[in-house]
Design a protein that fits this description.
The structure holds 2 protein chains of 2 kinds. Chain A is of the alpha/beta class. Helix content of chain A is 39%, strand content 22%. Chain A has 9 helices and 13 strands. In chain A, β2 and β3 form a beta hairpin. In chain A, α2 packs across α8. The longest helix of chain A is centred in the N-terminal third of the chain and has 17 residues. Chain A is globular, with a radius of gyration of 19 Å. Classes of the chains: A alpha/beta, B mainly alpha. Chain B: It is a multi-pass membrane protein.
């Protein structure tokens, strides 16, 4: 209790000078390479880190990275624990009812099934990450959905036979397939889902959203975003 | 292991690779998180003991309202599953404090605080403010966790201490009364010094349970050893500098050894304390000590 009161008192006194800078807190998951992940130095890294830092630089904002679990990432944005979600979040109508999105910074990309055998039953048990558009798709496809909190767990479920296949963003599954020495393989057709990946913001934060939208437009025009996309997702990825 | 070689892990093999791997920044955070757990223990144990002491005194008080408060506190916490309390106390405290600040700082705010499932206060009432450095957000989360642990373990400690106070032989207190001591003097001079020997086995158990409850920090969103073990152990593709398959079993094995070491150390210390507290007490332990000294 004492500690709490002390911290509260400190938080109150710190507030005085901290208000000076225009700090924008960026919330990310940190477990979805190459979109965002915690690198070996313990820092947020990945495409979205590089992109987010560049956006903040160009918009003249001081940005701070916050790691938050995927399943509570939208509620914590709404309650103000950070100011934007930049976590490989696809723009969907359902999410738009709760939060607003900037324009996309990754073009609509394919989702894919990954399994350990060529003839995996895609209408059997399919694993996907909770609260993703892929999970929703699997549920509607008639397959049995096995939901997991992280991408790692989704892949692990296929490996240990709990699920027949995993369904996720193709770019996120690609490293697992490429480096598995043939253990994992693509199954079935790629499926296009969502309206691309954008930054999620509170509906009331229209000013910040306009500012960031303008920077993204600028970065799309001068080729910065395309260069970053190729750097993180490889040649042949969809660009603008 | 110079920084030069560690900078390019792909060229390394065997022990050199492992050495570099185990000294990455992320591993340093893992090692530091053991400090977080120890800090939690160091802060929570005395706080819980103090709360427990107050709770025990309150539940024995002559004043009825005080007695009701003390008994309700212990009964309530003991009757509700720990995990529910660990999830409830931090959220309740956080929202309670934010709501208070909201009422004080933003009296003109017209939108409701509760909107569906969301709890939204005005920006000036946020705790900590969104403009505060990340370290304070983490400290705040940790403080909330400490509060939750202290409330729960305080109730258990209150029960143990109340039981210990009742276990002090009535004859000891009657003798004090015969000497003309007041109730307050009896409590301070006779009851409290003598109860510790009865309380220690219970408190020792509580301490063990507290050690084993520390991974609940993970549940409260604090980046503790469980968080880092899971994060470091999960399979890493070449997006990371040190790719490796799923190594979680090894990291959790390390945690297991850490906790076993902690309990062993605690057992040794508790048995020493029990022996020294038994001195001069009207208990079996005290009697054994007296005989051993006389022989």
């Amino acid at each position: 209790m004492k500690k709490l009161i002390l911290t509260t008192a400190l938080a109150l006194s710190v507030a005085g000078w901290a208000q000076a800078g225009d700090v924008v807190r960026l919330g990310t998951e940190g477990a979805y390479p190459p979109y965002n992940f915690i690198n070996d130095a313990g820092e947020v890294d990945g495409y979205e880190r590089e992109l987010g830092d560049e956006i903040c630089k160009r918009a003249g904002l001081t940005c701070e990275w916050v790691v938050n679990d995927w399943d509570t990432i939208i509620p914590n944005l709404v309650s103000g624990n950070y100011d934007a979600i930049i976590a490989g979040m696809s723009i969907t109508d359902e999410r738009k009812q709760t939060i607003d999105f900037t324009q996309n910074y990754i073009p609509p990309a394919a989702s894919a099934y990954m399994s350990v055998t060529e003839d995996a039953d895609l209408s059997g048990v399919v694993s996907a990450q909770t609260g993703t558009i892929q999970a929703e798709y699997v549920a509607q496809s008639g397959a049995t959905l096995a939901e997991f909190a992280t991408l790692d767990d989704t892949v692990a479920a296929v490996k240990n036979g709990e699920a027949d296949a995993a369904f996720a963003d193709k770019d996120a599954l690609a490293p697992f397939v490429d480096e598995s020495n043939g253990e994992f393989m693509w199954v079935g057709e790629d499926i296009a889902l969502g309206g691309g990946v954008g930054m999620g913001m509170r509906k009331s934060d229209t000013e910040l959203r306009a500012k960031i939208d303008a920077v993204i437009t600028e970065m799309k025009a001068d080729g910065t975003i395309n260069a970053m996309l190729v750097k993180w997702f490889g040649e042949g990825t969809a660009t603008y | 292991m110079t920084a030069g070689t560690c900078a390019d892990p792909a060229t390394l093999e065997g022990l050199a690779w492992l050495g570099c791997y185990l000294s990455t920044g992320k591993h340093m955070m893992f090692y530091a998180s053991f400090g977080t757990v120890l800090a939690l223990l160091a802060i929570t144990a005395p706080l819980a003991l103090a709360l427990g002491f107050l709770g025990a005194l309150a539940s024995r008080a002559r004043l009825l309202p005080l007695r009701i408060i003390g008994k309700t506190y212990t009964a309530m916490v003991r009757g509700v599953p720990d995990i529910v309390f660990f999830l409830f106390v931090p959220i309740a405290l956080d929202q309670g404090l934010e709501y208070l600040r909201h009422r004080i700082k933003c009296p003109d705010w017209t939108e409701p605080v509760r909107r569906g499932a969301d709890f939204v206060v005005c920006p000036a009432a946020k705790l900590p403010l969104s403009s505060t450095p990340q370290i304070w957000h983490e400290a705040y989360g940790f403080a909330l966790a400490v509060a939750a642990f202290a409330v729960v373990f305080g109730a258990f400690a209150a029960n143990v201490l109340a039981g210990a106070m009742n276990a002090v032989p009535r004859a000891q207190l009657e003798t004090a009364e015969a000497y003309g001591m007041t109730q307050r003097q009896i409590t301070r001079r006779i009851l409290i010094p003598q109860m510790w020997t009865y309380a220690l086995p219970g408190l020792g158990n509580l301490w063990m349970i507290l050690i084993k409850a520390t991974p609940l920090l993970f549940l409260l969103g604090v980046e503790d050893i469980v968080y880092w073990a899971r994060e470091l152990g999960s399979a890493k593709t070449s997006a990371y500098s040190f790719p490796h398959p799923d190594w979680r079993v090894w990291y959790f094995l390390a945690l297991l050894l850490f906790y076993l070491g902690m309990t062993k150390l605690s057992e040794v210390l508790i048995s020493r304390m029990t022996a020294s507290l038994a001195r001069g007490q009207a208990t079996l332990g005290g009697e054994a000590r007296r005989k051993a000294a006389g022989a």
